[in-house]
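Reviewers of the previous submission asked for a worked example of the structure-prediction workflow described in the proposal, so we include one complete record here. The input consisted solely of the amino acid sequence. No template or homolog information was supplied to the procedure at any stage.
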Amino acid sequence: MKLPALILRLRVPLGFLFAAGYLAFAIPQSWLHLAMVAIPVVIGCGIRSWAAGYLLKGKRVAIGGPYAWVRNPLYVGSFILGLGFCAVLWRDPLPGVAWALWASYVLSYGVIYPAKVRAEEAELREALGDEYVRYASRVPRFVPICGAVSGLGEQHFSAELYKRNREYQCILGCAAVFAFLAIRYALHF
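From that input alone, the workflow returned the following structure tokens.
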């Protein structure tokens, strides 16, 4: 099996392993700490929610909303919200476990998601043809270095697509983790 295929197959199990380690160790240092962590988590969820209202998977090129800024706003949002959750690990002094979890988060994101994106882009070129190739040539993958790219066409946010893409699960999952962290802090366990 080729390395990218192996990485993609291990993506979900490794994510669960990371989550278990994170939840075993993550304890906010104060209510203010937890509130500060919420800022990037809310921003990440917001980007993901915004993107989900434009995405009609494999049927058309998403060009509206955050897709005019980057080709992979769902992954950008996930990265930002993950950084927020990793901020819960901050302590003074910073323990080795926190360093290990931060490093594994950033490294795994830097390895797994580029492989995932390359595989998805090949599928999109196959399914959507020249329209996707033109879009991809104008809009950056992850970093919005050009600002919003104009002249891509018109698309509007669709609450129906948001629901169909089940992006509310991201918000529910983040709320559950925040509830766990809040209870853990309140009970000091």
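The mean pLDDT is 92. We consider this example representative of the routine output the project will generate in years two and three.
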